[in-house]
């Protein structure tokens, strides 16, 4: 069953990509839609990041994970190097968990 699901998802993914290539010249998007599509992609990515930062399965992840994400977000906003952002976020979450904060 797992192999069938993987194959179905692969076929669906490649079909969508092929459809984009084949329909590029035939499909004309309005100016409004062309401006909204990048914002929709950013909103979807933000929702995914927020869900991953706050949830562990179906329950709240605790305070340590969102605190690490917050530290990483602030450092990324301040244009710190990527390695520093990742290490600081992981260290923040690890230290909070070591201190007993869930």
From TrEMBL:
**Please, which domain of life does this record's source organism belong to?**
Bacteria
Record has Membrane as a keyword: yes
Q: Entry's InterPro entries? A: Brnchd-chn_aa_trnsp_AzlD (IPR008407)
Q: Which UniProt keywords apply?
A: Membrane, Transmembrane, Transmembrane helix
Checking Pfam families in the record gives:
AzlD
Q: Where are the transmembrane segments?
A: 6-24, 36-56, 76-96
The answer to keyword Transmembrane helix applying to this record is yes
Q: What is this protein called?
A: Branched-chain amino acid transporter
Origin organism is: Paractinoplanes ferrugineus
């Amino acid at each position: 069953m797992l192999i069938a699901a993987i194959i179905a998802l692969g076929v669906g993914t490649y079909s969508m990509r092929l459809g984009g290539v084949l329909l590029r010249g035939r499909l004309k998007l309005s100016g409004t839609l062309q401006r909204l599509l990048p914002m929709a992609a950013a909103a979807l990515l933000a929702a995914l990041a927020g869900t991953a930062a706050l949830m562990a399965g179906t329950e709240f992840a605790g305070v340590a994970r969102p605190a690490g994400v917050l530290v990483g977000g602030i450092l990324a906003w301040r244009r710190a190097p990527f390695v520093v952002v990742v290490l600081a976020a992981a260290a923040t979450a690890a230290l909070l968990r070591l201190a007993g904060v869930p």
